[in-house]
Write a structure and sequence with these properties.
Blueprint: E1 7-13, E2 16-18, E3 23-25, E4 28-33, E5 38-43, H1 50-61
Antiparallel strand pairs: 1-4, 2-3, 4-5
Length: about 70
């Protein structure tokens, strides 16, 4: 039986400077899945809170967890 992947946590990763790339990485909403994988689900400006970020992900990427 195949285990369904679910989001266990959503948090906002703040903007940061990446010294290897020599650029600023913009802030983004990150989803942590029950298998330990962390994935960017949307940009900071696309959602105002974790619930909005999850809704954005479900609307635009629902097939990823199906």
């Amino acid at each position: 039986m195949r285990k369904q992947i679910k989001i266990t946590e959503i948090y906002l990763q703040s903007e940061c400077f990446h010294h290897h790339l020599n650029c600023t990485i913009p802030a983004a909403w990150i989803a942590v899945f029950n298998n330990g994988l962390e994935v960017v689900i949307c940009s900071e400006w696309e959602a105002s809170n974790a619930e909005d970020a999850e809704a954005y992900f479900q609307i635009n990427h629902a097939e990823c967890t199906a």
